[in-house]
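check this one:
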Amino acid sequence: MNIVISPAERGRYHAHLAGRLLCTSLTPLFSAARVLKAEGVLPQEPLIMTHEGSDMVCLTSTVGEAASFTVDEGRNSGPTLRPYRPSPFARPE
């Protein structure tokens, strides 16, 4: 599965799969993987990410692995890969 990203606003990216918008996010591969996982895509399904207009692969993972991570940008450190935890304030879908 190839996630194609394009710039959105304020550092966010639109993530598309076969022309369908999956999400707009600061972490498009991870967020798109969570959407796909929620839709029933198998966790072992390979996932790659490219930029719109380019065939160069930027990132690669599986749906399950990518869905389990997020990026934390602390005040005193650079970006760090962390386990994903849903917000306790998120509304159930």
Q: What stands out?
A: The chain has one domain: 2-83. Residues 2-83 form one domain. The mean pLDDT is 93.
